[in-house]
UniProtKB/TrEMBL annotation:
<dbReference type="Pfam" id="PF00012">
    <property type="entry name" value="HSP70"/>
</dbReference>
<dbReference type="InterPro" id="IPR029048">
    <property type="entry name" value="HSP70_C_sf"/>
</dbReference>
<dbReference type="InterPro" id="IPR029047">
    <property type="entry name" value="HSP70_peptide-bd_sf"/>
</dbReference>
<feature type="region of interest" description="Disordered">
    <location>
        <begin position="133"/>
        <end position="164"/>
    </location>
</feature>
<dbReference type="GO" id="GO:0005524">
    <property type="term" value="F:ATP binding"/>
</dbReference>
<keyword id="KW-0067">ATP-binding</keyword>
<keyword id="KW-0547">Nucleotide-binding</keyword>
<comment type="similarity">
    <text>Belongs to the heat shock protein 70 family.</text>
</comment>
<dbReference type="InterPro" id="IPR013126">
    <property type="entry name" value="Hsp_70_fam"/>
</dbReference>
<protein>
    <recommendedName>
        <fullName>Heat shock protein 70</fullName>
    </recommendedName>
</protein>
<feature type="compositionally biased region" description="Polar residues">
    <location>
        <begin position="1"/>
        <end position="13"/>
    </location>
</feature>
<feature type="region of interest" description="Disordered">
    <location>
        <begin position="1"/>
        <end position="21"/>
    </location>
</feature>
<dbReference type="GO" id="GO:0140662">
    <property type="term" value="F:ATP-dependent protein folding chaperone"/>
</dbReference>
<feature type="compositionally biased region" description="Gly residues">
    <location>
        <begin position="136"/>
        <end position="157"/>
    </location>
</feature>
Length: 164
């Protein structure tokens, strides 16, 4: 920009702490070509950072969904509303996905989303059936599915929230 070559800011979301740094070319140490190269690199890394953020969001969404489904099965209020066969299907698929996650931490976003869709294809019909048998979805959850809150991974599906 007009005041410097590069402005960088970072914020720790947990503490709210904010830092900012401006890199300048006060003594003419860098040529225009070097400055242009650095700006281009910054833009390229920005795109890579965004892709990494999306990938991690998809991974976190899948991991959260799998663990929340397992937690749903352990809920005392819901335990007797799910048949043993359905419970076993969900537990086995969740365990399979968790094992896959443990051995594929560096998978691509599409792979995480594919795993989540597979898990949802097993869990959603069972959970829907459970809520229909119980007289509807508690708390006005859309489609009788657990969760439906904010989603941080594009088309990866709903995240699960524990609701009393």
């Amino acid at each position: 920009d007009a005041n410097g070559i590069l402005n960088v800011s970072a914020q720790d979301k947990s503490t709210g702490k904010h830092n900012k740094i401006t890199i300048t070319n006060d003594k003419g140490r860098l040529s225009k070509d070097e400055i242009e190269r650095m700006v281009n690199e910054a833009e390229r890394y920005k795109a890579e950072d965004e892709a990494q953020k999306d990938r991690i969001g998809a991974k976190n969404s899948l991991e959260s969904y799998a663990f929340n489904m397992k937690q749903t099965l352990e809920d005392e209020k819901l335990k007797d509303k799910i048949s043993a066969d359905d419970r076993k299907k969900i537990e086995e698929k969740c365990d399979e996905v968790i094992r896959w996650l443990d051995s594929n931490q560096t998978a691509e976003k599409d792979e995480f989303e594919h795993q989540q869709k597979e898990l949802e294809s097993v869990c959603n019909p069972i959970i829907t059936k459970m809520y229909q048998a119980a007289g509807g979805a508690p708390g006005g959850m859309p489609g009788g599915m657990p969760g439906g809150g904010a989603h941080s991974g594009g088309a990866g599906g709903p995240t699960i929230e524990e609701v009393d």
